[in-house]
User: What shape does this take?
Amino acid sequence: MLHNLDLRDPEVRAVALRRFALFMGMMMSGGLFIFPRIPMLVGIAILAFVLKGPSLGIRRAMGPIFLLLVAVFAVTLVGGGGLPLGDVATRYANFAGGILLLGLYLDLPRSTMARDFYFFGKVFSIQAVLTVILAETVNGLFRPVAFDQDLTYNTIGFLFTYHVMLEDSTRFLRPDGFFYEPAVLQIYLNIQLYLALFMFKDRRWGAVALLGVLATQSTTALIISGIVLAVYYIRLLPTATAFEKLAGLVVAPVLAIFLAFVAAENFQAKFAGVSVGSTWAREYDAYTGLNIAAAYPLTGIGFGSEQYFEAAMKHGYFETQLDNTHVLNRSEANSNGVVMVLYTMGFPLAFIFFLGLFRQRFFPDRILFFGMSIAALIPEPLALNPFFLMLMFSGLLQMPGLPRILRRRAHPVSGYPAGAVPSGGPRRFK
Assistant: This one.
């Protein structure tokens, strides 16, 4: 944490610049349209130069990552049948962003990135709760900002923002935060909930994060937060005081019933109510993406939008209940982040990316965090964006069987002990 705000202090200045870079990385991974992607990537590179010098934080230990990206480029040529420069450049700009973000943390204690994230997680949590309160009580303060003819955001200075996707689809207006929709905001809020409970052991901020998750009214968010809370409660029981056990026996059922009620209401809307079209669209994306991945299992089809459209027209989910117009629209891009990784590069390389996510070095409880991440990325096409790539790449710094020169500087560290930040001095990537 920053103990003072004197930017003349080199340590304070370094923390502020690093956190600003992390914020830009998160905005490149689901941020509102007001955050231009290319300038933010340039900004991250400039900050990496300021903080790390000409190396930009790039190290020999990243060798496996660069070998993986060469392999991705090769299969893109083969599977895509060509090289769509714009689409490939966009994807590799995201890869570069992930590498630069990772480089900022390699020589710092492994808890540093989590602490930097925790700083923003508090902001996102308060922002989510206040957006709902303000939108429901003083809605006149919000001003409409049109993104295109079909999408208008309502905002107070882009600090408190929401947009209505379907009229009467939710009980309350849903916050967007700094992100393009509530389903993206919930990813970061659930990470905050996880960090508050398992790493920083701060139930107050955990409660605020949970309120933020509830404010998004996302079905996926409720499922993830329910699992996080269940695991936390199970782990708490053996060491809990009598009062904590009693409080848990009272609070846990009430909270479980509330979460189940909200989730059931969402399921009703999605499968039989006003939001059923959203369910059909996500179903179409999932099955179409899996069909394409199955048709090109070794190489995928690459990153080209035209290649995806052609493959969707050939291998699409034709049993969908969407009409032809919506099928054509859905065939231009896929919203399923996990499936997207599979059909763009094939199963072998996709497995390496997901293995990297499982082995990520920043957060403890790898199995829980991996499950959370996969569940969160299924409805959002963010798996290959800088923030999540940073996590994936951090798990690829050392891979068994690689030449010694590529892995001798990657320190073989495991996850933190469950629910704790390691003590006894800082651990660093070597």
